[in-house]
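User: Could you write out the 3D structure of this protein bound to 2-acetamido-2-deoxy-beta-D-glucopyranose? I've included everything you need below.
Assistant: Certainly. Input first, then the structure.
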Amino acid sequence: MHPLLASIFIFTSTLWLSFHPNNAENDLQTYIIHVSLPEDNINFESYYRSFLPRVALHSEDDQPSRIIHSYRHVASGFSARLSSDEVKEMEKKNGFISATPQKMLALHTTHSPDFLGLQQHFGVWEESNYGRGVIIGVLDTGITPSHPSFHDNNMPPPPAKWKGKCEFSGTVTCNNKLIGARNFLGGSTDPPFDQEGHGTHTSSTAAGNFVDEANVFGNANGRSAGMAPLAHIAMYKVCALYGCPNDAILAVIDAAIDDGVDIISISIGGPYKSFYDDYTAVGSFVAMQNGISVITSVGNNGPCRATLFNEAPWTLTVGASTHDRKIIATTVLGNGESYDGQSLFQSKNFPLTLFPVVYSEETAQCEPGALKAAQVEGKIVICDSNNTLINYHGKAVKDAGGVAMILINTKVFGDTILEIAHVLPATILSFADGEKIKAYIKSSFTARAGIDFKGTKMGFNDAPSIAAFSSRGPNKLSPGILKPDIIGPGLNILAAWPFSLEDINSTFNIMSGTSMSCPHLSGIVALLKIEHPDWSPAAIKSAIMTTADQSNHEGQPILDERKFLADVLAIGSGHVNPSKASNPGLIYDINPMNYTQYLCGLGYTNMEIGFIAHQIVNCSLISSISEAELNYPSYSIILGAEIQKYTRIVTNVGDGNTTYFVSITQIPGVHTLVEPTKLVFTEVNQQARYMISFTRTGEISGHFVEGSISWISDNHVVRSPISIKCNPRTAGGVRGLATCSPIPETQKISAKEQPTLGPGTVESSVTMKLLIVTKKKRVMFAEAGKECVDFLFHILALPIGSVVRLLSTKEMVGCLGNLYESLENLYIQPNQDKDILLKPKSAQGAASVPH
Ligand SMILES: *[C@@H]1O[C@H](CO)[C@@H](O)[C@H](O)[C@H]1NC(C)=O
Ligand SMILES: *[C@@H]1O[C@H](CO)[C@@H](O)[C@H](O)[C@H]1NC(C)=O
Ligand SMILES: *[C@@H]1O[C@H](CO)[C@@H](O)[C@H](O)[C@H]1NC(C)=O
Ligand SMILES: *[C@@H]1O[C@H](CO)[C@@H](O)[C@H](O)[C@H]1NC(C)=O
Ligand SMILES: *[C@@H]1O[C@H](CO)[C@@H](O)[C@H](O)[C@H]1NC(C)=O
């Protein structure tokens, strides 16, 4: 398969469609039927068949059964192909509960072990024996069993509990690495070969064995391995090019529980109105009750807010970060400036000379067939990316006779560059660098440019940052649970690939998406399962979340695709740190029963919760709890005028005698109080509880604000992020959730221009990005007054070198004057967003604001 197609596939936005199998003449559609189970032990197959209408039963002799999947563990019911009349007939039967049409979900790596601090013969990899013997079930497009990443050298045979099947046969079949492989696509009896590449890529990221000299076109060369190189893989094929039917996902989780998997990895998602409609959430609830960890991807619909999927608190939901390897193709300009871009295909014979360069209104789009030879022949063509995920530009330039292409990222994608193999010498640049190149071209009649292909470079210490496409919170199905939970590598990940690329034989490929970050976490969970076999899925989640990194490899806060501070709605608890996760000190555990109480608290009916938990639930008989009462390792609070108080229980999994002290990053306008402030443990597995309360003390900016609470001992920092949203009903005037501010223009203003922003002067409508170079926080806090809260919150919380983002200011006076004394670099951007009003304490006499 062509690599570009592969990327498009991954990024296909997660639409779901109803699915019509090849049965148009009968107008049959696939439905998922829920039924109630009789008390007595039953034969599931015959009981489920009893719901089928006569006609459907009859036809069974001469055509495949109408029943596609029968469920046992995760649901009472089955999926079947039925006409709407047949469904109506079925509705009359005793025990029938509901019939819902099938939905289609969309699918949403060599260097990443090193990047995450996993090293051979050392630390977590050694201590966890490389995940030896853990079984990771991967739900995906199938797998390429002959791929070198799935060789079984050093692999033990599958554990005795393994009951899964292998549907490959012949010379290339399962082995001690790939211990199971089944096809769950309804109506298909083909072995689960991977026709897309996605499943081969994700499986090898989670648990690929060591392969030397893995590379693409000679780039990113190195020893390839998954996160848990000695874990077993069980592939469950649930996706094809057209998507992933949700009834199959439910059926796979059902089977995986029987088969004995330890971990389920699901790089698939879609939008849902409730948890009982979301069969990933439904299936994983029962998996969780069985001690199976379910890892999901957050989706690729970022950077807008409220775009995330897989919201259930009982799964680990993973966003995508960048890592520190880039395949560089530098743009060199006639004026001597140069800008590093990226390109997967490195043109070896491309001359290092300057060519005439073209960028004009007529050529900028580089649409297929639109470029004329007269415009581009013999030139380097600059193209504006239309949608960073769709790349027709290279072919258009090549066809029209251009010598090379410089593709400029969209504004929304900013700094997130996807490494793609283009059909001609090319490079992709960030939006900001593109603006500078365009300015040069405008300024010169004889503009020239060249591309210098520099190959793979490591050690970009601004990583990790959040990738533009990684979906963002808040959580829509459960606003009181912070999602995503964690981020891990998902941009330009090298991993196994079934096909040759561009007529060059290559068994590895670079892909991007939260689909790629999810299996990183699945592999890391496998390592933790070896080190802590007695930990529940919730305990493992807690260990990963409370130890996550907040800073990049330069020691600066994690940034987003615009080089702004990444917020908790983008990164959740932070960037995974496997070594720290293996020794977290304290854990926040959750009893499976507590999730049922939580679902009662969310207001679902007994029947709906019964679907999810697959058991009879009566919310009047169990005490329901609110979202924030769940013993979750992070906080998402919607705060009105009322004080909110919660209890959390932590379990000591570190040394016996340990004392922890609390450290709180306060949020201006909110008082976070923790009691007690000290937790003393004398034994391992001892529990302690603390009370945390949130009180409004002043104005909170209209956006989400964030802080954190950490328990600190000599050897551990156990951190929980806190996200607070003003409750619009009680706070007034706050905008709705699903807004995504347009990305502001960036322009740096020189030091000389800064005084125009001093106290008493006015700059209308600006959003600011500030680089903190000194820190006089007390002074500023005292002088600035509480209207500057958003500003000050960031400044108080961050070390020198941080980049501060002021989401929005309309009338900007006062605070800036104070800041100006402390700051050397000031970046100003036109405002797109008008929520925060900044005024100096003594604003009287300030100039009026131009409109
Ligand atoms: C470019 O994007 C616009 C807007 O999304 C879309 O209508 C158009 O079809 C795209 N052009 C191509 C060639 O895909
Ligand atoms: C790719 O591999 C096939 C089969 O091994 C071989 O026939 C072909 O020549 C190879 N192509 C290249 C470009 O090396
Ligand atoms: C969680 O479940 C356990 C066991 O049923 C129960 O003891 C505990 O009180 C529950 N936690 C909360 C917050 O209700
Ligand atoms: C749930 O429990 C309450 C209180 O015992 C009872 O009144 C109600 O009938 C029960 N509901 C169901 C559906 O069993
Ligand atoms: C912790 O300290 C107490 C009192 O000093 C002692 O009795 C106990 O054995 C210690 N526990 C551990 C696990 O070291």
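Residues 5-102 form one domain.
User: Perfect, thank you.
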